[in-house]
Specification:
Number of helices: 13
Strand content: under 5%
Largest sheet: none
CATH class of the largest domain: Mainly Alpha
Structural class: mainly alpha
Number of domains: 2
Shape: globular
Radius of gyration: 24 Å
Order of helices and strands: HHHHHHHHHHHHH
Distance between the termini: 48 Å
Amino acid sequence: MHKRNTVSIVVKHIVLGVLAAIWLIPILWLFVTSFKEDTGISISKFFPQNWSTHNFVDLFKETEYTSDGILKYKTWFMNTLVIAIFTCLISTTFVLMVSYSLSFCRFKGRRFIMNLSMILNMFPGVLSMIVIYFLMKALDLTQSHIGMIIVYSAGSGLGYLIVKGYMDTISTSIREAAIIDGCTEAGIFFKVVLPLCKPIIVYQVISSFLMPWGDFVFAKLILGTNSSKWTLAIGLYNMLDKSRLNAHFTHFCAGGLLISVPISILFLIMQKYYVEGITSGSNKE
């Protein structure tokens, strides 16, 4: 029996190792290719013969250094960062407010609102692309970062379910005690509930930041052809055009690698608060 269990464990580890290799090899190839001296695509060798950091340097040069003016990485990076930060702040605020009202407050139509939001969440967001585009067009918000922030944030309240589920675990006696002490509804929300919800707030912040950071479909639809307004997803995609592939493929790899930096920094910062939130959130008196 012991020998059989050992064989089973070894087989499982081999399978997991193979799956991990399949998952990591494309990432490793992206990493090593971003340091390749040549700018074109090459699949003859996995590791480059000559290593260089010029691809990363080129990304942050002025656009005039290229004949087609396609490299505006600094502009795209700042555009994406601004959109992601404002979307994160607004979306997180909306989700927390909606979750609190549906979790702690009892009012007429509450059940209907929850059922309706569940039904709406079953439909993919891309189905509304045409309507959103013409609405933004009517409001003159196409090719506008404000329009992008509105698109990403407007329906964020519908994603309340996970946060509400966490708030449901908080005892209602805490809210009742705060009301007896004369605390207002806003005071309960900011001073009582939110400090107990740090772990789920961290989750919501990261989720709200990631959505606009990596989105391509809505960004391509709203921002159009004005390259100075593009986000990173659109800019990197256009580097893979047939006419630019040989000149910008390694720039694409370097740019794709740099995309992960803000997300990694955000996670490392939030991880600290996540642990603190679990510790403080578990001490509910």
